[in-house]
Amino acid sequence: MSEKWYWTVESTNETVRIGLTAKTLEELGEISFVDLPKVGTILADGDSLASVEATKAVLDFDTPFAGTVIAINTAAIDTPTTLNQASHDNNWLVDLKK
């Protein structure tokens, strides 16, 4: 998937939080399942970042850049509908360390 599907917020320690844009959420419909990589996973540019099942589609999202997964949104795994919220506090997928 293209980077247009993501929002990113970079912190000062080369960590980037990645989430789904409002447009992506609108196009997917309500999210019912999400599969995220384990913390510690090293991803190359273009590797699978997340698999998302929603009312309108089932999609695999590729990572927009290489990095190591340092955190995942466990709330999204437990309750995938939290990703449907517009708040960046809730609809993020992973934190990657560049």
From TrEMBL:
Ranges in coiled-coil conformation: none
A Pfam family per the record: GCV_H
Protein name as catalogued: Glycine cleavage system H protein
Upper classification of the organism: Bacteria, Bacillati, Bacillota, Bacilli, Lactobacillales
Gene3D superfamilies xrefs: 2.40.50.100
Similarity comment: family membership: Belongs to the GcvH family.
The gene coding this protein: gcvH
Domain Lipoyl-binding: 15-97
Swiss-Prot/TrEMBL keywords: Lipoyl
